[in-house]
């Protein structure tokens, strides 16, 4: 059962999300919060797997809430999906960089929302297509002035190879086929890479790969 915490300052929005999710056999809404400060307290008490967090809230907004979740060892297993009304929200990149695993606009279809929760709960990254394009554009701009991170020095040659393929959007099965490895071996490599680089999930691996110029968008090659 995937445990979900809803965080939005609008009661009707939370009620709408709850009504959608309560119809799913494998998803349980364990609580609600109306601002980031309340969300942090609830997360520590309720131990959710996934938090749906509105990016614009009073007291503590979604961006700062995400930062604090990512920095709290007690919440290491919590995945964040950022919600907003606009897919061109100015904080999209910052939220993902802060530790969010995915990003959805509030008019997302119910089936897409439940799919997003399942994807993020199993450790994968989730981005709406329009957000993916915007994120890659932002990363492309940054890659023109790369900042090679000394953090990458801890990786083996094989781990660098795997990380590059993750950044290119390949799944574990696709990476396994490319490198003639078992999917289980690839999964182990990805887990070790995330541990060594102290990143929460594949989204952060992708961002770090682009910012360090480990990979470059095709139009900049």
TrEMBL record:
Upper taxonomic lineage: Bacteria, Bacillati, Actinomycetota, Actinomycetes, Streptosporangiales
Name this protein carries in UniProt: LuxR family two component transcriptional regulator
Keywords linked to the UniProt accession: DNA-binding, Phosphoprotein, Transcription, Transcription regulation
Modified residues (4-aspartylphosphate): 54
Keyword match Phosphoprotein: yes
PANTHER family named among the record's database cross-references: TRANSCRIPTIONAL REGULATORY PROTEIN NARL-RELATED, TWO-COMPONENT RESPONSE REGULATOR
Ranges of residues in domain HTH luxR-type: 148-213
CDD domains: LuxR_C_like, REC_NarL-like
Naturally occurring in which organism (per UniProt): Actinoallomurus bryophytorum
Database matches in Pfam families: GerE (PF00196), Response_reg (PF00072)
Record has Transcription regulation as a keyword: yes
Domain Response regulatory: 3-121
């Amino acid at each position: 059962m995937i445990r979900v915490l809803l965080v939005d300052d609008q009661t009707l929005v939370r009620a709408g999300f709850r009504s959608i999710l309560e119809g799913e056999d494998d998803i349980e809404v364990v609580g609600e919060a109306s601002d980031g400060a309340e969300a942090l307290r609830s997360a520590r008490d309720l131990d959710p797997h996934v938090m749906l967090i509105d990016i614009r809230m009073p007291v503590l907004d979604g961006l700062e809430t995400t930062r604090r979740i990512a920095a709290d060892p007690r919440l290491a297993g919590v995945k964040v999906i950022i919600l907003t009304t606009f897919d061109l929200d100015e904080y999209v990149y910052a939220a993902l960089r802060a530790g969010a695993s995915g990003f959805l606009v509030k008019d997302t279809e119910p089936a897409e929302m439940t799919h997003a929760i399942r994807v993020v709960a199993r450790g994968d990254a989730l981005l709406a297509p329009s957000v993916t394009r915007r994120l890659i554009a932002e990363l492309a701009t940054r890659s023109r002035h790369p900042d090679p991170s000394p953090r990458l020095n801890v990786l083996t040659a094989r781990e660098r190879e795997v990380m590059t393929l993750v950044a290119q959007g390949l799944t574990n099965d696709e990476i396994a086929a490319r490198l003639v490895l078992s999917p289980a071996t690839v999964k182990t490599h990805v887990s070790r890479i995330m541990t060594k680089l102290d990143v929460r999930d594949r989204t952060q691996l992708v961002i770090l790969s682009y910012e360090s110029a480990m990979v470059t968008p095709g139009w900049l090659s």
